[in-house]
UniProtKB/TrEMBL annotation:
Active site: D146
PANTHER family (alphabetical): ATP-DEPENDENT 6-PHOSPHOFRUCTOKINASE 1
Positions with a binding annotation for Mg(2+): N116
Any one cellular-component term (Gene Ontology): cytoplasm
Ways its activity is controlled: Non-allosteric.
Subunit organization: Homodimer.
Source organism superkingdom: Bacteria
Pathway(s) where this gene product acts: Carbohydrate degradation; glycolysis; D-glyceraldehyde 3-phosphate and glycerone phosphate from D-glucose: step 3/4
Phosphofructokinase domain location: 6-324
GO biological process: fructose 6-phosphate metabolic process
Protein name: Pyrophosphate--fructose 6-phosphate 1-phosphotransferase
Keyword vocabulary terms for this entry: Cytoplasm, Glycolysis, Kinase, Magnesium, Metal-binding, Transferase
Organism: Roseburia porci
């Protein structure tokens, strides 16, 4: 049988838009004359190693509304993993198994949707494919709320998370301003090495709201005494001070403010939490005003009710682009987005070799951060603003959003 199929999987942390990219891949396959079946590997690359697959084209063919519903379903329909493949030169057994699975299922293209660590998997699979002269096309589809993938202008998932952060900061401001007492509110936002998401808190500012009044990012050195002085100076002019802080803020020696020295994930990243709480204690002990900290945590990742329409549409388009690239013979690459204009906002979709992207991280340009390291400049606001535009229509059932059924992810 001369059948050509493809496979897609998701990995890393969830976002609002990663399923929109998955929907784009499925739609791209259905619109293409290159592939018959699109398989979904459940729980990332582990799904291949465990031979756990879904027939996605079959599922969509039986449900006319599946594509649209998938686009607005948060997190990962296929499930995720944080599995680090070994170097094939040290241990090629998982690679042999994976490519045998590809042969068994007549896979001619593999799409992996994820962030930095996922692109490491794309690079390793691509290198092994080249070693064995495989003609399977391997394409990375970007995803991460951290917005720290290199080469591409921004990543799917970031715009929606940024919209959630900006909205939450505005609502926190409304909550805080009702009390005529001196207070400090510290909001901890995700971002280990790049402060894009924390910087997006500045989008909460409007004609009556200047919060957050201070913003601290991992791109700059965090100094405890300078922070306390910043807060004291702000309290001279206003009752309520709101601070946005990245979880990955660090001192001059590069030490995370609250990093656990023993907790690391499979990719060697320190597991961070409590930066906001640490700053809360600093204020309480040294300034003595009412203070609280808010850790947004996972809430910023999957808030589909506050999704950016721009984000969802671009994520879907990048999934479609991945299929187009594979069909034209491109491999060992990641889909990229290039901003061609801010006014009006326009973009183009392309690709870049995965070797230029994997295991690298994109930080906020230092020229977009003020000299004191406690706020952002207008250039960053101009970059961020288009990414949160537009609202997504979500279907509801009994007052609750109606998402795709993910019972296949239950592990009972």
């Amino acid at each position: 049988m001369n059948q050509s199929n493809c496979m897609v999987a998701q990995s890393g942390g969830p976002t609002v838009a990663i399923n929109a990219s998955l929907a784009g891949v499925i739609q791209g396959v259905m619109d293409s004359d290159q592939y018959n079946i699109c398989y979904g590997a459940v729980n990332g690359v582990l799904g291949i190693l465990n031979e756990n697959y879904l027939n996605l084209t079959g599922i969509v063919s039986e449900d006319a509304g599946a594509i649209d519903r998938l686009k607005t379903t948060p997190a990962m329909y296929l499930g995720s993993c944080r599995h680090k493949l070994p170097n094939y030169k040290d241990d090629d057994s998982p690679y042999v198994f994976i490519f045998n699975q590809f042969a068994k299922l007549h896979i001619k293209a593999f799409f992996y949707i994820g962030g930095n660590d996922s692109m490491d998997t794309v690079l390793k699979l691509s290198d092994y494919a080249k070693k064995i002269n495989s003609d399977i096309r391997i394409i990375g589809v970007p995803k991460t709320i951290d917005n720290d993938l290199c080469v591409t202008d921004h990543t799917p998932g970031f715009g929606s998370a940024a919209k959630y952060i900006a909205t939450s900061l505005l609502e926190i401001a409304h909550d805080t301003f009702i009390y005529a007492v001196k207070s400090v509110t510290i909001v901890e936002i995700m971002g280990r090495d790049a402060g894009w998401l924390t910087a997006a808190s500045a989008l909460a500012r409007n004609e009556y709201n200047t919060a957050p009044h201070l913003i601290y990012l991992p791109e700059t050195v965090f100094d405890k005494e300078q922070f306390l002085n910043d807060v004291r100076n702000m309290l001279k002019h206003r009752n309520n001070v709101i601070v946005a802080v990245s979880e990955g803020i660090h001192d001059a020696d590069g030490n995370y403010i609250t990093a656990s020295k023993s907790a690391v994930d499979t990719f060697g990243h320190q597991q961070l939490s409590g930066a906001g709480k640490a700053l809360e204690f600093m204020v309480k002990e040294n300034i003595g005003v009412k203070v609280r900290s808010v850790e947004v945590n996972v809430l910023q990742r999957c808030a589909s009710h506050l999704a950016s329409l721009t984000d969802i549409e671009e994520a879907f388009a990048q999934g479609q682009k991945a299929v187009s690239l594979a069909s034209s013979g491109v491999t060992a690459s990641m889909v990229t987005i290039t901003r061609t204009s801010n006014h009006p906002y326009t973009v183009e979709y392309g690709y870049s070799e995965i070797c230029d992207i994997a295991n690298e991280a994109k930080s906020i340009p230092v020229e977009w951060i003020n000299e004191k390291g406690n706020d952002v400049k207008p250039e960053l606001i101009e970059y961020l603003s288009p990414l949160i535009q537009g609202e997504v229509s979500v279907s509801y059932n009994n007052g609750i959003p109606s998402y795709m059924n993910v019972s296949h992810l239950s592990h009972s």
